[in-house]
Design goal:
single chain, mainly beta, 3 helices, 18 strands, about 15% helix, globular
């Protein structure tokens, strides 16, 4: 009898534990939806993105050919003034629009499409232009870019440091691609781009097609004297950049459609990254990373840092899938069979704030 009683007690405890776990999961999902609904209250599905968000210092690249003669053969680029036009602010019903239910700013990109110079990956992505609306100043002009305070000519630039914050949900990433290469099944939702081919920051979301959860990580790109020796250093936040379809599901990660936030704050020479999973809920988790951009990244002596470089913020859906296979890292071998086949990426922004 005692033995049977113990077994019954254990079984009952296990049942209670499972019920509690299921309740907690349901409660979290409810809180997540409630917070998303709260953010949506400040957004209107009937307005263009530039009417819901302050895009007055931003232009956008889209994954389609530009139709204007001056940009023949180039990717579509919508300048600051057209994006923020007072009569007809720009929207694109496929790649850049306000979500018809939430009002979130949606940016999407197929696996293969026209893209910018020096890239094989298509994007719908905003680029900060510090000169702001109505200007025709070249994006490379110092007044459109920022530096850190160790730059030898810092007063010539549009800003010293700056802050970009976002609350975002990744709705979809490509289901095709070589899962042994970390860019496959991933999208970059925010970055700091340098003046050359290097980026001190790229924020990645990546999810295997057979997993329920995705991983969030960020990359620092080593900036050597010989640019051809540059390479990326992935830093995991939740989940891992090294997962394949054979890996266990990263249950500490983030599901498609779930909100997370990032804050990139460059003050002096210090870049502080703050990430929050489950924002606006009782289960919110925060992780912070600090990097001195004026110094070589610890343990990587060929890095010269970004103390003499100029930079700019970007945010959007920079699809990391392409059809190439030759490159050992970036040749992800994705197919491009269209949205219905899952060969695209999509990101929804519920907040996007620039202080610079």
């Amino acid at each position: 009898m005692p033995h049977r009683l113990i077994k019954t007690t254990i079984a009952t405890a296990m049942t209670i534990g499972l019920c509690s776990s299921a309740y907690a999961a349901t409660d979290l999902a409810t809180q997540q939806q409630a917070y998303k609904a709260k953010l949506s209250q400040a957004l209107s599905p009937t307005l263009a993105p530039a009417q819901n968000f302050d895009l007055s210092q931003m232009k956008i690249n889209l994954p389609i050919p530009d139709h204007r003669p001056a940009r023949q053969g180039q990717v579509m680029e919508i300048e600051v003034d057209e994006l923020n036009d007072s009569v007809r602010p720009y929207t694109n019903h496929f790649w850049f629009y306000s979500h018809p239910e939430t009002g979130a700013m949606v940016m999407a990109s197929p696996n293969t499409a026209p893209t910018t110079k020096n890239s094989s990956n298509a994007r719908s992505e905003l680029r900060i232009m510090l000169n702001g609306e109505g200007t025709k100043v070249n994006p490379k002009h110092p007044s459109n870019n920022f530096v850190i305070d160790t730059h030898p000519n810092k007063q010539a630039y549009g800003a010293i440091g700056g802050q970009l914050s976002a609350t975002v949900a990744v709705d979809w990433v490509s289901v095709s691609g070589d899962d042994s290469k970390f860019p496959s099944h991933s999208v970059v939702v925010g970055q700091i781009h340098g003046s050359s081919k290097v980026e001190p920051l790229k924020i990645y979301y990546r999810k295997m097609p057979n997993h329920e959860y995705g991983s969030l990580f960020w990359n620092y790109e080593v900036y050597p004297a010989d640019i051809d020796q540059r390479y990326d250093i992935p830093i995991p936040i939740w989940g891992s950049d090294t997962l394949t379809k054979q890996s266990d599901d990263p249950v500490d990660g983030i599901k498609l459609g779930e909100l997370f936030s990032y804050d990139v704050n460059v003050v002096g020479s210090l870049m502080t990254l703050t990430f929050v999973k489950n924002p606006g809920t009782d289960a919110a988790q925060t992780k912070v990373f600090k990097t001195d951009l004026s110094q070589p990244y610890p343990g990587h002596p060929i890095d010269q840092g970004y103390g003499s470089d100029n930079m700019y913020f970007k945010a959007g859906a920079y699809n990391q899938c392409n059809q190439g296979t030759a490159h050992p890292v970036w040749g992800t071998g994705c197919t491009n069979n269209g949205v219905a086949a899952g060969d695209y990426t999509q990101v929804s922004f519920y907040k996007l704030n620039l202080k610079q």
